[in-house]
Amino acid sequence: MQPIVFVLGKPGCGKGTTCSYLSHHLPVQHFSAGDLLRQEVQNPRSLNAQIILDDMKAGRIAKPEITVQLLREAMEAHPAAKAYIIDGFPRELEQLEFFKQQLDVERCFMLHLNCSDEECFTRIHGRHSNRVDDNDQTIKNRLQNFADETLKVINLFKHQGRLMEVNANADKLEVCQNAFRVIQSLVGIRK
Ligand code: C5P
Ligand code: MG
């Protein structure tokens, strides 16, 4: 199976922006776990729409089986990709375990977009989204989740020598270009 790069960072750190830049400049297929969950909420035939929405509104992490199933389907629909970039996943160790049980992962790495809480708050306040979870209380819950759960996953990759970090407090283009260099040298691919 193709290499996978998980892109993690606090809410508002620029995961979506950076991954969209990467997928335009490299032959990689990008999926956002959060976007796949939001699409599922909009799917009238989904049996999980309401429970996902409730978790999102509260800033809680959705059941791992739901997110992993959505990612698996998305990846299977793009078998020709040279590499997959997955943003916002795995948010916790349990999601990572589920993913490894379901998919035959040989090479996986992590890019951490390292950003301060203050900068994340400022960016989310500035993005004028109509997301159900971009209010102050839910942003706090999401940042707390990051500190309690996601950091454990990041530290695991660090101990395994599979972690790369980019300073995400910098300006957008600089963050994107630094991430590009890191990913290009890692997966050794060119468009
Ligand atoms: O990554 P993003 O900020 O778009 O995620 C929004 C919300 O989607 C999270 O706060 C969480 O409720 C849910 N989510 C999740 N598991 C993931 C990614 C997102 O439960 N791996
Ligand atoms: Mg996002």
UniProtKB/TrEMBL annotation:
PROSITE patterns: ADENYLATE_KINASE. It comes from the Eukaryota. One of its GO terms (biological process) is nucleobase-containing compound metabolic process. InterPro entries: Adenylat/UMP-CMP_kin (IPR000850), Adenylat_kinase_CS (IPR033690), P-loop_NTPase (IPR027417). Keywords: Kinase, Nucleotide-binding, Transferase. GO terms for molecular function: ATP binding; nucleobase-containing compound kinase activity. SUPFAM superfamilies: P-loop containing nucleoside triphosphate hydrolases. The keyword Transferase applies. Pfam families: ADK. Belongs to the adenylate kinase family. This is Adenylate kinase 4.
